[in-house]
Amino acid sequence: MNQRTVNKPAIEGGTPVRTEKIYYGHQYIDDADIQAVVEVLKSEALTCGPKIKELEDKLCRITGAKYAVVCSNGTAALHIAALAAGVGEGDEVITTPITFAASANCALYCGATPVFADIEPETYNIDPEKVEAAITQRTRAVVAVDYTGQSVALNPLKQICRKHGLTLIEDGAHVIGTKYEGKANGSIADMTTFSFHPVKTVTGGEGGAVLTNDEVLYRKLLLYRSHGITRDTSLMEHEPDGAWYYEQVDLGYNYRITDIQAALIISQLDKLDMFSKRRKEIVARYNEGFGKLEMLFVQKEIPESDTTRHLYILRIVPEKLRIDRRQFFDALAAENVCCNVHYIPTYYFPYYEKLGYRRGLCPNAEKLYEEMISLPLYYAMTDEDVESVIEAVTKIAIYYGK
Ligand SMILES: *Cc1c(COP(=O)(O)O)cnc(C)c1O
Q1: What is the pLDDT of residue 7?
Q2: Mean pLDDT of 281-306
Q3: Is the dihedral of CA 121, 122, 123, 129 positive or negative?
């Protein structure tokens, strides 16, 4: 094909590939989900009820982790994980800039300094060698993000963390459903956090969790989730005054999740295999469609990760195109394919600039940011949706190809 045989892009006055707009992510809620929520609404406990433990047990079964602490959202999960890791004033926490801001903000919440390590140029995950190079006397933890749902290189990261006495926190907001070397992510790092925001693979409206195999970390996570308050007499400093007695033994937060949300997440988890299978099918179709085009680069997969993709990243090859990412993005929007960009490097934000961070820190991350677009990827996409996205991308890539 060449430019003459391709239809004109809608942005130049041609007919759009789709008549209806499609967006990059969307939840899938069925009757079972609705029923599960209604049952809680008709029950006694809207919060602190039986659904909390039920969800925690289910997350442990699915991931193989020993302990799970569910909480109000993925950001709260990162905050209590950082606190449980002992992150505090003067410490440094190493993370990637290609993530949602919460991965670094959790260090700031604790009075610590985020340190950004660059990504690998083809998998887009944090580069273990860059992590090791960034370690100082003050480093306390590493927050490694399974970007797009592909597992980070957990074995090398675990080794580095063990060698330097650091806690490995896996920000697994994208990773539910993925396995690393045959084991579900969630049972491998010191702590793994999940998010149940509606764009993620499994949703509760809002919701989060921290998974761990370590009982000491587990006890701390429970305290930080709920004000630092305990009813466990073995943790108390004073004799109980009576049956009502509890103690605040540390400074925690109200990061609890409701039973209403927990019930929805439990019901959604019943569909995880189905969600995962469909996401894998769509990714395979996209890879097949885009792999043929020299104007596009397909994200590299590491063999250790059996990936349930949360995001599909379309990456343009600027040398092969007459348009840049922004023009490609706008051309897709004109075809009614409404995409997004995940993510703006965290240290580009004004808040981080005011803290003294400057552009140029992580060249691979900055280059990826210039070249990427998140395409629609969610369970409820039809085959026609998938094909129309491929058609729109192909049309634009070929029309504007060099
Ligand atoms: C969504 C997300 C979070 C935050 O989760 P919330 O539940 O929205 O608080 C953190 N890290 C990453 C990588 C995310 O994608």
Answers
A1: 86
A2: 98
A3: negative
